[in-house]
Specification:
Layout (H helix, E strand, L loop, with lengths): L6 H6 L6 E3 L6 H8 L6 E5 L7 H13 L4 E4 L9 H5 L5 E3 L6 H11 L23
Parallel strand pairs: 1-2, 2-3, 3-4
């Protein structure tokens, strides 16, 4: 039987997880082709070195979700860590913050990743990961 643990649970327990990169403008058939090459646990999309807009990110995340693949998204710069909560509301399961050089930058990103009481992220975003099936 396949491991039914969530990606987060698998990472926390130290399992090896394998991702693959895909361009944000990839079509569903292109993503299917990429995913068919191996057994991947997530797909990584990059804004640090690629153009993106919020609508395209939502479309990409929805397509990847249809194919059963969670999305990790690399934001453009460490100074944009305050946008982590907003980006998560658009559909990625995880965020990569590039160019982190000290603990205060990690703390800033984590503050916006988590909801209160742990962090400062506000509630919202109908496209956010895991919202399907909720009645609120």
């Amino acid at each position: 039987m396949a491991d039914q643990a969530s990606l987060k649970e698998r990472i926390v327990r130290g399992d090896t997880v394998i991702g693959v990169s895909a361009p944000l403008n990839a079509t569903k058939s292109e993503l299917e082709d990429i995913f068919s090459k191996d057994s991947y646990d997530f797909v990584n999309a990059d804004a640090q070195h690629s153009p993106y807009n919020e609508e395209r990110l939502v479309e990409f995340c929805e397509t990847a979700k249809e194919l059963g693949m969670p999305v990790q998204f690399r934001i453009k710069h460490t100074r944009q860590a305050y946008l982590v909560g907003n980006v998560l509301d658009l559909g990625p399961l995880g965020i990569e913050v590039p160019l982190v050089e000290d603990e205060s930058e990690v703390d800033e990103a984590l503050r916006w990743f988590y909801y209160p009481q742990v962090g400062g992220r506000s509630w919202g975003g109908a496209a956010r990961y895991g919202i399907e099936g909720r009645g609120d």
